[in-house]
């Protein structure tokens, strides 16, 4: 191998999925961006060829003994892949991990903060462990460091608009005329005819939370000492602090509606013991710092002037700065990672790698611009450049023109999707791409056009006084019968407004997201859209046999693989691997079933057809309508039998859209539908949205993509910034109006 080749990852004759003998060189220690329409083969090169080979090589480093336990990662379909370094994939898979995984723990910032408190906290307390809610020394003993516990659902338990005599207390033991309520009346401490809303705060405190005390009362002429206790206090001690298993089923059922999960009553959600919470630096305890937005936290940390802690402060500010740099300054360290969006998760993972010391690694990113407003894309670019400048090879699959601009090298895959793609149509510089005449090049040159004539709404859906996360009393009207785009920088409150508030109030809305449609391992586009039912009937009547024969889970299915086409091999402590079924060769049906033909094709032949081929083959009205809908959303290239699990998020979303295209009068909500879509696919998507609107539906889209925003009938812009500096309605109006709106960052970028 020549020395110059060492500077490149060299791939020759790659044939995974739709790739047509692709050969290319990827410069090392540079940023290479792969682009091209959805389904063109970008992932087949980057993930199924490059990343897969890297994993295989890594496994080969293990001894023969260990390797017998590792899944046999098959060699990717290619003639050669040379000069690979270790690959790290930074994807958008959400960070799971339950309540013990937070932004702080996942970025390794929390341990440093604990170290800081153990060095500089007052009063001096003890080891860093004392400040960890994952450690028995530090966790709140009441909630075991979870920060939440079961509490009384106050809105169900107490009706403030009534008096005690009118039944203000709605808990099971407090029926008017019953023992508990009579005790309260007899105690003489409370005005039984006054509405609770007219009680003073002391009276209310005493009634609801008063500690147990003895009161002398008269019963049947005899004086008795009776214990009286606050209503909520008593209920909590009697039913919540007790092991539910010791209560009868009836009691459990009676009290269950009055109990909800809420902030722990001891630590108030801080998760830590009282001892660690009493330790402070410049007046703040560790829980307060963890609940602070990173942008503010970094300023507070910089102000700590303690020479002993100086090295800790330095490493803390360094890491916090990475979070600020990537545009996550609106998040808090105590934020649970499973509430982060896909884009946020990916950026958090990125920060972890920036702080690490690996060099000569191949970093692979899958659309890192997801969730970022155009204003913040430059931050992402700087991060990619930093990784490169540390001596790493950076490979990015991306559609955003502003990210594509920073590439040292661009690979454009196409020209189209599926079988009409799988080639490299351009390799070279950004300037070269603009002049290449490819779909990507041409789209990058086109100027943005603002929609001039907005549709008139047919009505409106109101959100009133929304107060959640960072939203403060937001009221907004969402017009019906038109296309509304909700926009704003990341963290401004778009998802909170639409996904959390609006959807909970308008439960009839239909959400079209990119989540996988994994009904079962046997589902595919034919079964999902219902085409398979009609196809089975057609086969049955053409051959005068039972239609059940043509189902994957019937007698007609291959017995070896139960109609799956693949056999899963379980490897006790590793992911299982799928191997093609040896009996049916992946065709999924028994030999005798494949003998039955419809116009010369077997059921397996039909499942191997692309949507495009099936449109030519079928004449059945219902089947053609469903196929046409799939074709309309740009899915001409997928095969009817392709397992749903191999479809990308964008493809799943479009299949869902396809099955909605014939409806009228519905409300559709889509969260960043352009994810995974090439500029030319976006035109397609817009056409579908417009078709839905023209058929009388309401479409509400959360988007940063300027192309989509520019084509809205109505724009709702949240902001002005992220986190506590956001949460307000900055602008509502049409695309031609937003460019004049002074406070709208989005407006500036549309100009
Ligand atoms: P891109 O990343 O450019 O969107 P992909 O590389 O994911 O494109 O897909 C290229 C083609 O290969 C598409 O037609 C896709 O449906 C098909 N494909 C991808 N993965 C599989 C798979 N596991 N089995 C069969 N076909 C696949
Ligand atoms: P956008 O959709 O505009 O990116 P979000 O609605 O996701 O913004 O977030 C708005 C604010 O609410 C941010 O400060 C974010 O950190 C916070 N937030 C969002 N989801 C949660 C959650 N589940 N728990 C706590 N805070 C949240
Ligand atoms: Zn607690
Ligand atoms: Zn089989």
UniProtKB/TrEMBL annotation:
Signal sequence extent: none
Pfam families from the UniProt entry: ABC_tran, UvrA_DNA-bind
Top-level taxon of the source organism: Bacteria
Annotated keywords: ATP-binding, Cytoplasm, DNA damage, DNA excision, DNA repair, DNA-binding, Excision nuclease, Metal-binding, Nucleotide-binding, Repeat, Zinc, Zinc-finger
CDD domains the record matches: ABC_UvrA_I
InterPro entries assigned: AAA+_ATPase, ABC_transporter-like_ATP-bd, ABC_transporter-like_CS, P-loop_NTPase, UvrA_DNA-bd
Keyword ATP-binding set for record: yes
Residue ranges constituting the ABC transporter domain according to the UniProt record: 4-446, 448-751
Homology family: Belongs to the ABC transporter superfamily. UvrA family.
Protein name according to UniProt: UvrABC system protein A
Lineage: Bacteria, Bacillati, Bacillota, Bacilli, Bacillales
